[in-house]
Specification:
The protein is mainly alpha-helical. It is built from 4 helices and no strands.
Length: 86
Amino acid sequence: MAWFIINFVSILNNDYNRLISFLSEQPSKTLFSIFVFLSLFFYSLTISEIFEDYMGNEKIKNVANKFVYIFAILLSFGTIITIYNL
């Protein structure tokens, strides 16, 4: 997280080409991919905990949890593939 904040501040006022060149570098690709994956993993855990607390119907809760997990996996893989194609 600290890596992302430091680099985000450094590229905040730069143009589009600098952002693309930053994300095209191998260490940035790897670290940003790990950051995206972990962020979406914790997002899915948080949402599933909300489902556990506030949904009474077990079937709907299970379907909603599975949908969130699938969405997080697909979104993280899609983001990682897009970053590696830059």
